[in-house]
Amino acid sequence: MLTKNNPSFVERYDFVLLSVTLALIVFGIMMIASATQGAVDTDLINRVPDQINYAIIGIIVMFALTFVDYRLWSGISGWLYIVMVVLLLMVRLFGVEGDGGAQRWLNIGIRIQPSEIGKILLIICLASFMTSRYRNMDKLSTVFKALFYIALPTGLVFIQPNLGMTMVYSAITATILWGSGLRLKHIGLFITVGLIALPLLFSQLQPYQLSRITTFLNPDSDPDAKYNIDQALISVGSGGVLGKGYTIGSQNAGRFLRVRHTDFIFSVIAHEFGMVGALTTMGLLGVLIFRIMRGARLASDAFGAMICYGVGAFVFFQCVTSIGMNLNLLPVTGLTLPLVSSGGTSLLFTLVGIGLVQSVIIRRKRLEY
Q1: Within a domain: residue 4?
Q2: Which of 26, 42, 179, 281 is the most exposed place for a label (fewest CB within 10 A)?
Q3: pTM to 2 decimals?
Q4: How much helix, strand and coil, in percent to the nearest 5, is found in the chain?
Q5: In 3D, which of 103, 100, 98 has the Cα closest to residue 224?
Q6: Using CA atoms, how far apart are residues 61 and 349, in angstroms rounded to an integer?
Q7: Are 183 and 137 in contact (CB under 8 A)?
Q8: Which of 318, 345, 344, 343 lies closest to 333, judged by CA?
Q9: Alpha carbons 225 and 232: distance in angstroms, whole number
């Protein structure tokens, strides 16, 4: 390791993180194009151009955020918290319903998903909140204040209902609290309380959410839901080592696999590019997460480290959950595979998160070679 005084922007910039990000975006657009080939539905036809448009906007925003000192966001975190809560309240009041009756989107000429915006705002706000309190993490009151702070936005997401994103918010919170120095005794206490409160949580779930869990535990309880899980496993298994070939996999081209452009895009990858393609995709996502967490290690202050922890948390959690449900290792949640699955708001705000991480990295105190 070498050090250098006043290194330039180019020397500090993480080009590995940028390269992996761009590679995943391009690959994702290719897979969405394959998954929606021959579509007649207008929504499916527009998926590729929409993803490209959001990718262009997201990349521009990502570079713009890199030039903005991330510490400025801490100064307005109170206002950002208000914006986050207002957006989530607007979903409750004016939201557009989707499949299953979930009210998760706002229509402002284009459909946006405020919970995706909220996860970035949550990272900034909670990171700022904990920066002034992490020295007091031995006090249980500090942890309770943090949980109370995030309870409102998390609760608003839960009642949309959006269990998958609720878990993402919880993963972000747990990771930032851990990064702030959460004590083991407090972790044990919260696990105990969580287990006690689990029946209450299940009683508040919507029927389709309960169905996803019961189908995972007992696949024969819902033949219709089991069908797509079976098709996903067939897609993965039939891909073999090298796959059936881009756009020509029968499970994808024959439309046996549902929601293949979003929830089950990993199955399409494994089907068309085989084990090699699936492992390569997982490897690229692993490098992405590693470079984000490297930013936490290099950060010049606690606020920067916690931003990286938060971004790394949601990318990791969504990757594990999305791939896990494609392999029938986890219940279906509807979470996107970051940078790969179709979803404009998800793509845009994942790039916003990476832009924040780059801002932290280029303002680190030391330079590594």
Answers
A1: no
A2: 42
A3: 0.90
A4: 70, 0, 25
A5: 100
A6: 9
A7: yes
A8: 318
A9: 11
Whether the per-residue pLDDT at 1 is higher than 50: the answer is no
In the chain, the percentage of residues whose pLDDT exceeds 70 is 95
List the one residue out of 276, 200, 260 whose CA is nearest residue 228. 260
Query: What pLDDT, on a 0 to 100 scale, did the predictor assign at position 101?
Result: 56
Q: 105 φ, ψ to 5°? A: -120, 155
Domain that holds residue 298: 9-362
Q: What is the DSSP letter of 5?
A: S
Instruction: Copy the structure tokens of residue 48.
Output: 């590729």
Cα–Cα distance for residue pair 357/17, rounded to 1 Å: 10
Cα separation, 232 vs 238, in Å, equals 10
What pLDDT was estimated at residue 69? Answer: 95
Pairing of strands 103-107, 96-97: antiparallel
Tokens of 213: 């869990």
Instruction: Give the pLDDT score at 3.
Output: 47
pLDDT band at 132 (very low <50, low <70, confident <90, very high): confident
Total domains, the chain:
1
Q: CB neighbours (10 Å) of residue 67?
A: 11
Q: Tell me: the pLDDT tens digits for 151-202? A: 999 999 988 888 889 999 999 999 999 988 888 877 887 788 777 777 777 7
Asked whether residue 79 is assigned to any structural domain, the reply reads yes
Among 52, 51, 22, 48, which residue's Cα sits nearest to residue 33?
48
Residue 2 lies in a domain: no
| Residue 20 backbone dihedrals phi, psi, to 5 degrees | -65, -40
Token pair, residue 241, equals: 């080592």
Run of H or E residues at 330: none
Q: How far apart are CA 338 and CA 219, in angstroms?
A: 27
Residue pair 348/50 in contact by the 8 Å Cβ criterion: no
Can you tell me the distance from the alpha carbon of 248 to that of 31, in angstroms, rounded to the nearest whole number? 12
Residue 98: per-residue pLDDT: 60
Residue 104: predicted pLDDT: 76
Neighbours of 230 (CB within 10 A): 15
Nearest to residue 306, comparing CAs of 160, 184, 178?
A: 178
Top-ranked range on mean pLDDT: pick from 249-263, 290-304, 327-341? 290-304
Minimum mean pLDDT range among 125-139, 182-196, 294-308: 182-196
Radius of gyration for the alpha carbons in the chain, expressed in angstroms and rounded: 21
